From TrEMBL:
The species this protein was found in: Aristolochia fimbriata (White veined hardy Dutchman's pipe vine)
Entry keyword set: ATP-binding, Chloroplast, Kinase, Magnesium, Metal-binding, Multifunctional enzyme, Nucleotide-binding, Plastid, Thiamine biosynthesis, Transferase, Transit peptide
Protein's job: Essential for thiamine biosynthesis. Bifunctional enzyme that catalyzes the phosphorylation of hydroxymethylpyrimidine phosphate (HMP-P) to HMP-PP and condenses 4-methyl-5-(beta-hydroxyethyl)thiazole monophosphate (THZ-P) and 2-methyl-4-amino-5-hydroxymethyl pyrimidine pyrophosphate (HMP-PP) to form thiamine monophosphate (TMP).
NCBIfam families: HMP-P_kinase (TIGR00097), thiE (TIGR00693)
UniProt-recorded name of the protein: Thiamine-phosphate pyrophosphorylase
Primary subcellular site in the record, as a coarse category: plastid
Entry GO CC: chloroplast
Domain Thiamine phosphate synthase/TenI: 313-498
Length: 524
């Protein structure tokens, strides 16, 4: 069950709008309509789209434009559906089902392309993702050359993003040669001039590159996406999957750039998971878009940005304490890391913005070179400005769902919780971990309610997220916390035990070795 929970990304639930209906509360899930061809081998086309959207927690309806007979060897046949029946399917779905985003794949004829354009004018949607499918990787033609003009003159001007591969980009530009990354940049700009709001030129098929490189152009800036090319024969359907994931993320409310980033991560994770899979005997096999349901390890694949074990010894800075002992934030952070701190949070309630940012930037360098994540307390602006690894917020700071929108899917978000309701909310809103306390009385925070070891244990047991304990923890009582033995209690967070001390390095070392001893004895 845990795998299923994970695959239904925490983010998913935060975007389920509730709509009143005869006094009842109903959920409206984000909804993508794919208008594409069926792939009998199920690696690409409608089948890929349904799996990809489903994996990202998005409802996917489907209008079939053609039925193909294909497998890992190639395309054995294409049977386009009659235009009037594509029109009928479009009307059925769009007139009734509150589609957020339309994603197009194989449009086998200019007639079908025009039917789609007419439907979109009659039933406008929030966003249109156009994957201008023309030729399969096996070289088989999936859309006649007559559709080229239709794409250029009618569909692309309506598109929020178009995602051609190299051959399709070349065809859209009248047979331009595309052989280098510089050519891809140029092509992205030229295709933008055909009218779409954004362009992603995909370089999966660029020869002689160790990276898979895609170029994104939003009319102002070009972004280069590079991931190490995964060595596998199973890449059939990467294009369809990528476009569907972009559509799904847009339907959930993401910005275009973040949607593309998330889609890339999904494809990369799926290829990695499926790299050794053997289906069929032809040259290009399908991969598994449902990978997140099958192997929990892949839900925490590196794209998932956060290792809960980094909560082990969590150092939270305090300007006043460090000043009292005559040292700056940066020196304090360096000493804590040298002593074994596994994550750093800068909590500088009184610092001026300019000073805070300067210190944060210096800490970021130290943290990065030591592979220790750096979080900023409360100040999302500072975190963005110094490119910190994430933010920690309290219950009266900016809500987690808003922080997630600002920081995107790849940053860490922690939130302080005392109650089971707050812990549940944190999970729903897309937090990565919970800070739970005060466990013991503390002077760092005024008027802080102490929940005690029992409160901590109850909250950990109920929480679906990893937990770090905080509040008055020091050498003398750290053992009683870690010995609670709840699996998602990953570590302790400390302020005065490290920073209200003469030597930060010594205190951190001491606490670190104590924690190591405790975890060795609890594992034994
Ligand atoms: N071996 C790989 N490793 C990592 N990423 C890849 C690999 N192959 C393709 N990609 C990525 O997959 C996405 C689709 O790229 P590609 O250029 O293959 O599209 P396509 O040709 O339209 O796909 P399709 O196989 O569905 O026709 C791109 O983001 C690309 O960078
Ligand atoms: C049906 C269908 N759509 C798209 C592609 C492109 O991969 C394919 N091979 N088949
Ligand atoms: Mg390809």
């Amino acid at each position: 069950m845990a795998t299923v929970k994970n695959a239904l990304s925490t983010r998913t639930f935060s975007v389920l709008a509730t709509v009143g209906n005869n006094g009842n509360c109903k959920r409206k899930p984000p909804h993508v309509l794919t208008v594409a061809g069926s792939d009998s081998g199920a690696g690409a086309g409608i089948q890929a789209d349904l799996k990809a959207c489903g994996s990202l927690g998005v409802y996917c309806s489907s209008v079939v434009t053609a039925v193909t007979a294909q497998n890992t060897v190639g395309v054995q046949g294409v049977h386009p559906l009659p235009e009037h029946f594509v029109a009928a399917q479009l009307r059925s779905v769009l007139s009734d089902m509150e589609v957020d985003v339309v994603k197009t794949g194989m449009l086998p004829s200019i007639g079908i392309l025009r039917v789609l354009c007419e439907s979109l004018k009659e039933f406008p949607v929030q966003a249109l993702v156009v994957d201008p499918v023309m030729v399969s990787t096996s070289g088989d033609v999936l859309a006649g050359t007559s559709t080229l003009d239709g794409f250029r003159d009618e569909l692309l001007p309506m598109a929020d993003i178009v995602t051609p591969n190299l051959k399709e980009a070349a065809a859209l530009l009248g047979g331009l040669r595309l052989e280098t990354v510089a050519d891809m940049h140029h092509a992205a700009r030229c295709i933008y001039n055909l009218g779409p709001k954004n362009v992603l030129v995909k370089g999966g098929d660029l020869p002689d590159t160790s990276d898979a490189i895609d170029i994104f152009f939003d009319g102002k800036q070009c972004h280069e996406f590079r991931v190490p090319r995964i060595k596998t024969r199973n890449t059939h359907g990467t294009g369809c999957t990528l476009a569907s994931c972009i559509a799904a993320e847009l339907a959930k409310g993401s910005s275009m750039l973040l949607a593309v980033q998330e889609a890339k991560r999904f494809v990369e994770g799926a290829l990695l998971y499926s790299r050794d899979m053997v289906i069929g005997s032809g040259p290009q096999g399908p991969f598994d878009q449902l990978y997140k349901f099958k192997d929990q390890a892949f839900t925490s694949y590196r794209g998932e940005h956060f290792d809960p074990n980094s909560l082990f010894l969590y150092a939270v800075t305090d300007w006043r304490m460090n000043k009292k002992w005559g040292r700056g934030i940066v020196d304090a952070v360096k000493a804590a890391i040298d002593g074994g701190a596994t994550i750093i949070q800068l909590r500088e309630k009184e610092a001026k913005t300019g000073d805070f940012l300067g210190a944060a930037e210096a800490c970021k360098k130290i943290c990065q070179s030591n592979h220790v994540p750096l979080l900023i307390n409360d100040r999302v602006d500072i975190a963005l400005a110094c490119d910190a690894d994430g933010v920690h917020v309290g219950q009266s700071d900016m809500p987690v769902s808003k922080v997630r929108k600002l920081l995107g899917p790849n940053k860490i978000i922690g939130v302080s919780c005392k109650t089971l309701e707050q812990a549940e909310r944190a999970w729903v809103d897309g937090a990565d971990y919970i800070g739970c306390g005060g466990v013991f009385p503390t002077s760092t925070k005024e008027n802080n309610i102490t929940i005690g070891l029992d409160g901590l244990k109850a909250l950990c047991s109920a929480s679906k997220l990893p937990v770090v304990a905080i509040g008055g923890i020091k050498k003398g009582n750290a053992g009683s916390v870690m010995e609670l033995g709840v699996p998602n209690l990953k570590g302790i967070a400390v302020v005065s035990a490290l920073f209200d001390q003469q030597c930060v390095l010594t205190e951190t070392r001491c606490l670190h070795s104590l924690l190591m001893d405790i975890s060795a004895s609890t594992m034994a």
